[in-house]
Amino acid sequence: MTRRLDPFFTPPEVAKALVDSLSANSPAVVLDPAAGDGALLVAAEKRWPTATFIALDIDPSHVRLLRATHPDWLVGRCDFLSPRSRASCHALRTVLGSIDLAILNPPYSARGAKTWPIVLGAEELRCGRAMAFVGTVLGVLEENAEVAALVPSSSLTSRKDAASWQAIQQLVSVEKTGDFPRGTFDRGTASTAAVRFTRPGCGVRVAPTTSRRPKSQRLAVTVRRGHTPLHTVSKARKRTGDRNHPLVHSTALVAHRVLRAGLRPSPAGALPTLRGPAVLLPRVGKPMPEKFATWGRGSVVLSDCVFGIECDSSAEMHRTLDLLLRNWRRVRNSYVGSCAPYLTVAALIGLLEELGVTASWEGAQAWRRAASIGIEAG
Ligand SMILES: C[S@@+](CC[C@H](N)C(=O)[O-])C[C@H]1O[C@@H](n2cnc3c(N)ncnc32)[C@H](O)[C@@H]1O
After folding, report:
1. Three-state SS letters, 101-149
2. Number of compact structural domains in the chain
3. CATH number of the CATH domain containing 360
4. Is residue 59 in contact with ligand 1, taking CB distance under 6 Å?
5. Is 82's C-beta closer than 6 angstroms to any atom of ligand 1?
6. Is the pTM of this model over 0.70?
């Protein structure tokens, strides 16, 4: 166990106070993304014994201990601040899309002025380590979820976290529910504050609502469906090595981004199916908020498992993504089929219209037409 990971565990009375600060009646899935010995989830289990508990930690010794002491919890080793690690964490993937409560006492020590990146709504910011945990946890939760977190008291007033607190308050309601002085944690050094975050939908709506905008302000987008089957890609690599138009498959959609390393060469002759700025999302497979990603610039070929929503500007792209994430329950319910859920073009257009977005649909024909007369399709 290394000190760098902040192995300061929460005493039972503080864990209980944190759990008691939450208003949830019967959460389905409760997450601690930095679980340590599981103190917070133990307190949560006392209050909500029928919930599913998911405990993550970066430290393998904690993960082993958690598995041994709580065989009925979902336990996973995960570096929660790493998009790759989250994407490959089986325990987390199992419950993504249904986590409705999170409780955390994240690590916060950091050398000097080190900061971590987070995406809050449409904003990309840098902040302290504890704040990065809070921002990341908000990104994996359901629309109506609640969060209770212990953060270093200094975070509430620090310049490092100021912009992040501001951005978070645009998305959720934030309330300080307690103060714990220095020495509350055996070996911990800082005083801490308990903070509760309530997602819109719990009676508090901070972010803009989903009601229809006046026509002049409505977003207007173009929906494009990918058509290139993945099995044609490896053949293409052997034949041409053509990387002019990269191909995006759903596996490259990670943590709201398209992983450059996940791009593949497209088959010879494949026509681009989309031009950024755009929001990309899986057409097939269990919908997960993290897999709704932005694609800034350039033309790409979409695999047949991916939809693209082309936007007029980068700001509109971020607004569109934000809108989809804030209405996650509706988005998730638009996928049909239980074994391998999928989304139809009609359902996606219907969903966007319901959210106040004017959506038009352009099939592959538009690109073919454009290519045959030698211009780039828009
Ligand atoms: C302050 S302790 C809190 C443990 C427990 N939640 C509690 O309240 O008693 C922080 C925990 O975060 C874990 N941790 C540190 N960095 C992490 C990361 N990047 N991802 C996941 N867990 C991490 C540490 O191993 C440690 O168990």
Report:
1. EEEECCCCCCCCCCCEEEEECCEEEEECHHHHHHHHHHHCCCCCCEEEE
2. 2
3. 3.90.220.20
4. yes
5. no
6. no
